[in-house]
Write a structure and sequence with these properties.
Elements (H helix, E strand, L loop, with lengths): L1 E5 L14 H17 L4 E4 L11 H16 L4 E4 L6 H5 L2 H4 L4 E4 L10 E6 L2 E8 L7 H8 L9 H12 L8 E7 L1 E2 L18 E2 L10 E5 L5 E4 L3 E4 L16 E6 L7 E6 L6 E6 L1 H6 L8 E8 L6 H8 L3 E8 H8 L7 H13 L5 H20 L1
Parallel strand pairs: 1-2, 2-3, 3-4, 6-7, 7-10, 8-9, 10-12, 15-16, 16-17
Antiparallel strand pairs: 1-13, 5-6, 11-12, 13-14
Amino acid sequence: MRILHTADWHAGKTLWNRSRVPEQEKVYAEIVDIARREKVHLALIAGDVFETNAPSPDAERLVYGALAEMIGAGIPVVVVGGNHDNPKRLAALREMLAPLNIFVRAEPQRPEAGGVIEIRAGNELARIAVLPWVADQKLIDICQLMGPEDEWYTTYSENVAAMCRRLAQSFSPDTVNILAAHLFAFGAETSGSERAIHVAQPLAVSPSRFPTTAQYIALGHIHKPQEITCPTRGCYAGSPLQLDFGERGQQKRVVLVDVEAGQPASIDSIPLASGRQLREITGSVEELKNQAGAVRDDFLKLIVKTETQIPGIADELREIFPNALEVRVQSAQAAETVAEISGSKPLHEHFADFFRQSRGLEPAQEILNAFHTLELEVANAADQT
């Protein structure tokens, strides 16, 4: 059986208010084309299909359009709920999409209630154990939902590992056995673009506790493509686009898995070509200007190093680099000034100094007024607590 593993589409995500719909449309179409070309028997989307729990119409159009293409190609799809997805919204589609061989699992389910999905391809029967994101505030309810265990544990990570093993109890030597989960595996390398609260160490599940009977573990949640060390083959497919500057330089991919009952899985990465690159460029004003012709349509983060403040330099560089999403000025003079800040000056005046130093511009009066108003509101709130 040949399986395509992808994850973390984050449909609808913007970058500094720049729409990425055209890129998302292209990369989802590329993934469908790979699935067709490689004649896969099953596609797995391991969570965070959408960026928010209230996706825009454009985001829904892109995702459901890609799923429709998979239906047209005769490729079953398993969709796993992630921490960014709205579980109720996804679950509402489950019954409608199941007859079309699109199997949506928005929340953890017991094996007999849909937590294990069977897919047949030729002579092979695959059992896909599916564990969507387990919200820590719902952990006790989900443990009760999953049914009796020899013992449930006191920590989040041990309970999530136990859920994986519980789902894997349906695996057998005569079936292709896959675990698809959206979780944080201890030791996985993050990109900084994931929600920090959801990659905290208390939520990290030890890969050594994953079921040994799984032939492949298809993971979502971490955006950097990587294989993890565990009792079997397991991978984060990673996000299909560079979603934030923490992902710059990453080659995005899908994972192709070939596996048959009773045999170890073999895996291969197929690089994705769609999407704009994210680049961070550091240098003096002249060094940055000299690179203006080499950045193509990349999205940029510029860090300008100067000895003294240069009024208007950020706006000047944005004229030269229209795809610069952030221009950060680092001047030795500004650093010295910041070091001399005392506590006697009002906070809004410190803000005005910071604005001048970082932007090389005088702050507009409405910006100063807004900051001063916010300062007063915070002070009043503190007095009332």
